[in-house]
Amino acid sequence: MLAVFKREFKAYFANPLGFIILAVLYFFLGLGFFQMFSAGAPYVEFTVVFPAQIGLLFFVVPVMTMRLFSDERRTKTDQVLFTAPVKLINIVMGKFLAAFALYALGFAPTIIFQIIVSALVSVNIFYYLYALLGIMLFGAALIAVGMFISSLTESPIISIIFTLIVNLFIMFAGSFANMITVPSTTNNFFEAIGAFFMNIGVKFLNGMNFVGVLESFGSQALVIKDIVFFISIAVAFIFLTERSLEKRRWS
Amino acid sequence: MIEVTGLSKRYGTYLAVENVNFTINKGEVVGFLGPNGAGKSTIMNILTGYLSLTQGKVTIDGFDIAENPEEAKKRIGYLPELPPLYTDMKVREYLNFVYDLKKVKFPKGPHIDEIMRLVRIDNVQNRLIKNLSKGYRQRVGFAQALIGNPDVLILDEPTVGLDPQQIIEIRNLITRLGKNHTIILSSHILSEIQAVCDRIIIINYGEIIADDLQDNLSEKLSTDHSLVARVICDERDMLAALKAVKGVKDVTLLGKKESGAYDFEIIPEEGVDVRADVSGRIAERKKSLLSLTSNRLTLEQIFLKLTQAPNNQEARKMLGLDANPTSEVVELENLVIGIPDEQSDKEDNE
Question: How far apart are CA A33 and CA A46, in angstroms?
Answer without folding.
Answer: 7
